[in-house]
Structures are given as C-alpha cells and as structure tokens.
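Service request form, structural biology core

Requester: graduate student, group of Dr. S.
Request type: structure prediction, single chain
Budget code: on file
Notes: please return the result as structure tokens.

Sequence provided:
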Amino acid sequence: MDVRAQVSMMFHLDKCIGCHTCSIACKNIWTDREGTEYMWWNNVETKPGTGYPTQWEDQGKYKGGWEPKGDTIKLRATDKFRGLANIFHQPHLPTIDDYYEPWTYKYKDLFDTEAGDDQPTARPISLITGEYMDINAGPNWDDDLGGSEIYARNDPNLNEGEREVLLEIERLVFFYLPRICNHCLNPACVASCPSGALHKRGEDGIVLLDQNVCRAWRYCISACPYKKTYFNWKTGKSEKCILCFPRIESGQPPACFHSCVGRIRYLGVVLYDAEKIEEYASAPESELIQRQRDMILNPHDPEVIEAAGKSGVHFSMIEAAQKSPVYKFVKEWDMALPLHPEFRTLPMLFYIPPLLPVIGYVEKGNYRLDDEEFFTTLDKARLPMRYLASLFAAGDESRIRSVLEKMLAVRMYRRAQEVDDITPEQVKVLLERTGLTEKECEEIYRLTALPTFEDRFVLPPSHREYQTELAIDDPYTFKAEIGVGGSLNIDDRPHRGL
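Core staff response, request fulfilled:
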C-alpha cells in the first residue's frame, strides 16, 4: 500500500448562483497577461450547454482522456507512433473559434472622434490582432441559456428526444457548472507530454507545468479531456490552473475558493493508495465511480496512518484528512461524484449534483404541483435524471438517484423540525430508504447550509522544508505510454513548482 496525500475539492452545485466571481478572481490574478486573454482557468458554464471550449465533452472530436486497451488503458490523443507522426501537427486541438476570440473596445474613439451628427461608438477590436471584429462568441456565451438555440441544443449530454423538447426545458430550469483543473490522480496531460514538463507534486498531488521545460508540443491540451490546459500564443508555452499553490503552501484556499459568494466550494485532504491507480482506472465503466471511491483510504485507520508515515506524508496532512469535508461527502456519505468519470483520469474535483425543483413539473404547458410522494417526483424532475447521470455518473442513473434522495431526506428531516408538516414516521421512512441517520442528516445540513470558513477549508500549511529532505526513490508504479518518449513515470521528476 503506497499511501499518498491529495488536495481534493468538492463543489455543491445546489448552491451555485452563477455569479462568476470565482472566474474573475482567478482571471485577475493569473491570466491578465498578453497571450492569456482567452484563458479561463476557472470558468462557470450553464447546463444544458456546450461549455468552454465549445463541446469540450465530445471526445470523439477532441480525443482527450484514456480508453480501455485489454487489461489496461491508453491515451486517446497519442501514443509512441502517433506522437512521432503528429509531433509538429496536433489534429485534435481546439481552435480559437472553439474558445472565442478575445476582444476589447476602442474607447479612444469616444473621446478623439471629430464632432459630427452621429454618436461615436467604441467598436470591438481583437486583443490578438488589434483589428475590428464582430463578436460571435464568448466564454459564457450561453450563460443562463442565452444562446440555447445554438449552444444548449448541441449539448452532447442530451439525447435526440431531449433536444426536441429543449425549449420547454429552457423555460423551466438550468444550473451552473463551475470548472477548474481536476488535478487528477491519473492525469492524461502528464502522461502525454514528450518534454516531461508536467508533473504531479508528491506532497499534495497538485499537477503543475514547468514552463522552463515546456517545448510547446501541446499534447497536454489534446490529452486533457476537460480542456483545462491552454497555450500562450505570446510566450509559446502551455499554462494551466496551479490551484494557487503559493496560497495552499501557506494554508490558505485558492483565490476562486476564497472569493466564492455562494460558499459552494470545499477543500480538504484525502489519502489514497497510489498502487491502485492503473487497476482502478482500467476498471469497467460501470465500476469506475466505486473504484475511485474505494481508492480513497480511511484516515482514521491505524494501518493507513502507519503506511502514510512510511510514505512521507506529514502528520499535519493526516490530521487534515481526518477532518476533511471532501472525505465526508465523497467517502462517508457517498454524495459527491466526479465529472465524467468515463474519461478515466480519476479527477480529484467532485460535485454534488443539483437537486433542482422536483415537486413541480409541466404538463401540456401548465405548471403542476400535485400532492404526492416526494421521491416519485424525482422521475418528473425538470431536468432529466439521465442528463445528470451522463455528466456525473457515466450514465448510471441509480447513482444520481441515490444522491438526490439523500438530499431530499436531509431537507425533509429539517422541514420536520422547522415547519412541522412532516411527521416523525415520514422522516423515519426517508432515513431508512437512504440509509442516513438523524446525526448524519444534521451534520450534512450543518456542513451544507451553515459551514464556517474553517469547516469548508481544512488544509495545513505545507512543510516544504520537510518535503525537500524526502528521498524520491519510490515513485508511482503506474507508467503511461506517451508520444515520443516511450514509457514515462508520472511522478519520477523532482517535485518542484513552476
């Protein structure tokens, strides 16, 4: 058992208000330089929608992530032979049109235009070419379903029948999906880089990109199925979310977490068994979520604590793992799920799916509110459960149903206490159906609705002086085939920052 510590994250989508404050905080700190105008390391998408870059979920188009190959897995984007053939050409990269051409406005025209009969205007100009341009897209062009006819209708998670009734869905419901780099346990970007510029830090699992080593092959962009690595056209180097590791090292949450208005973001430490990465990433698609959950270890187990110490995990990280809100939601309560687990990168960012209004539904154009069992209305939810399953459960609707039922049970448990229109017998039935106890309902409620800053962010300052003394002679056993460099261990480089 090779126990490692991983800084892990959880987003509670039932609480996201789509204010984009997280995106602006990240943009102002990290991507306000020339060459990064189009980059959004943190972005918030409206679902249904195609997201940013457009249709990033369609791996038939972009070839990101991993795919099964016998008893193991291989990269979709490249291997030793394809990497050599395409080393000067990336056929599956998003284009600037898939992102958007960044722009500003020529405000100077408002002040310097000569007097005349027409009102002067500040026309949009490209931040790349400096030329006048027509604005056709943006990073959140379909925000609040504003571009649903073009974007939401082409959401790859919708089937043909759901596309036909999209306009009806549009009038009723949408939700927000914030995204950052998942800092995966099995990162395709790291495995695909011929230069070895990407690495996963041993002390906290953050995936970083060394720009001194980057040679702009851009395999990392193709291989990342979430498209969270970007190319800086000015410097000729790739860039990505670094999880604000200078803040992490001082015990502070990343900027997007700190600025979150809806308090949807939770950050903590989980312990996992690195020896299981290849085995669990290669599991059948229907088992991927459970395997990833099994890989997360109990931080209270004496054997795990002993093994973690032998692996060089600092005792403060073990203590943080024992108090981690992410561990509770993912492992103890089984309520948080990874985004598109079928990509097989084992992402360390988990989501609680949105419950959305489920008591009401539309029939023949009229809003209905029937007096019926709460759980039966899940099948009449405004957004199809199959859609949520496609996003968070590799199509397994039972997983989504289990989470939504637990969320309903907690709501009814609190309603019985506050409103007194739910009987104790009804609460008992709800708890028996979901397997929750009253104590767990109370803890979930407190951590969801009334969390303090310290409850949501449980992370100790990094002990860099301790980490630099560790011998890096026991790297991960999992090796991945990459473009032109043969087999490259995903943790065999020095654990350095940018």
